[in-house]
Specification:
Helices cover 30% and strands 42% of the residues. It is an alpha+beta fold.
Length: 150
């Protein structure tokens, strides 16, 4: 009986979530970051889930239209060269996340002002939709004050 239970346990743990079922979260995030760095607004928005949440400090946007307008469209023109350093990531057949630190160049508000650099922590959470596409459902950024770029 113990042998049968052991075999069932091994079978369930190796087939319940095989590596083929999990998404490559690094690829998802690189596509998202690539679209951000290429200033491809529509591609960025296409990654957003209808019920996406974006948090930064005390700011909280929810829903695809609000996040698209207030985070993507309003922020994208002010930033360039987004880079991430992943500290933690995981994926299964339904969810995936990456978390770590980020840095981004902040463009000046007007000519003659210095460029800045923004740094902080991030988490991006992806979920697989009923149509089998992966969508960003939660993004959180915790940034330090922008510093003058040397």
């Amino acid at each position: 009986m113990k042998a049968l239970i052991f075999v069932l346990f091994i079978t369930l743990t190796t087939t319940a979530c095989s590596p083929g079922d999990a998404v490559n979260v690094q690829d998802l995030n690189q596509q998202f970051i690539g679209a951000w760095n290429n200033k491809d607004t529509e591609k960025i928005i296409s990654f957003l889930a209808e019920d996406v949440h974006f948090l930064q400090g005390s700011t909280h946007f929810k829903g695809k239209s609000e996040v698209a307008q207030k985070w993507v469209r309003e922020t994208l023109p002010t930033l360039t060269d987004l880079k991430t350093n992943v500290v933690s990531s995981s994926a299964d057949s339904k969810t995936a996340y990456e978390a770590g630190t980020y840095s981004v160049d902040v463009l000046p508000d007007s000519p003659g002002q210095p460029h800045g650099i923004g740094e902080g922590n991030f988490i991006l959470l992806w979920k697989k939709g009923t149509d089998d596409t992966w969508k960003l459902t939660y993004a959180q950024l915790e940034g330090l004050p922008v510093q003058v770029k040397q």
